[in-house]
Design a protein that fits this description.
Helix content: 25-40%
Family: Belongs to the cytochrome b5 family. MAPR subfamily.
Low-confidence stretches: none
Largest sheet: 3 strands, antiparallel
InterPro entries: Cyt_B5-like_heme/steroid-bd (IPR001199), Cyt_B5-like_heme/steroid_sf (IPR036400), MAPR/NEUFC/NENF-like (IPR050577)
Number of strands: 3
Number of helices: 3
Bound molecules: protoporphyrin IX containing FE
Number of domains: 1
Protein name: Progesterone binding protein
Radius of gyration: 13 Å
Strand content: 5-15%
Organism: Schizosaccharomyces japonicus (strain yFS275 / FY16936) (Fission yeast)
CATH architecture: Roll
CATH superfamily: Cytochrome b5-like heme/steroid binding domain
């Protein structure tokens, strides 16, 4: 497994959305980019594809699949939601390859 260890702009990260088949599929959580390529749950048309190609921290914190929540903004989240976000972060850290 290779790690790229580099930073992505939000625009660049969009190129790693599930709908762009020529690239790996990335999901960012709390500013860290994870490679979810090969996990069919993130394939185009699947419910978790919405998280790909961006930092979806807010959606994970809120257990939301709404595209408008797929943003890095954590303003106004409750303590409970921030804990949920931390749990998701640890989950991605464990099961996915970190790219940054
Ligand atoms: C009816 C509602 C839902 C059901 C029944 C459900 C069920 C599941 C199941 C069974 C898995 C494990 C799948 C596997 O490993 O093969 C999973 C994973 C996951 N779920 Fe849900 N889920 C629901 C809603 C949501 C929502 C609203 C979110 C929004 C945060 C969410 C986020 C995730 C994420 C991020 C994973 C991890 C995928 C991975 O990387 O392996 N789920 N869900």
């Amino acid at each position: 497994m290779s790690t790229t260890n580099r930073e992505f702009s939000a625009e660049e990260l969009r190129l790693y959305g599930a709908n762009v088949t020529s690239t790996p599929t990335y999901v960012a959580v709390k500013g860290i980019v994870f490679d979810v390529s090969g996990n069919p749950l993130y394939n185009p048309g699947k419910p978790y594809a919405v998280f790909t190609g961006r930092d979806s921290s807010r959606a994970l914190a809120k257990t939301s699949l709404a595209e408008t929540d797929c943003v890095p903004v954590t303003d106004g989240l409750s303590e409970k939601q921030l804990i949920a976000l931390d749990k998701w972060f640890r989950f991605f850290d464990k099961v996915s390859e970190a790219c940054v």
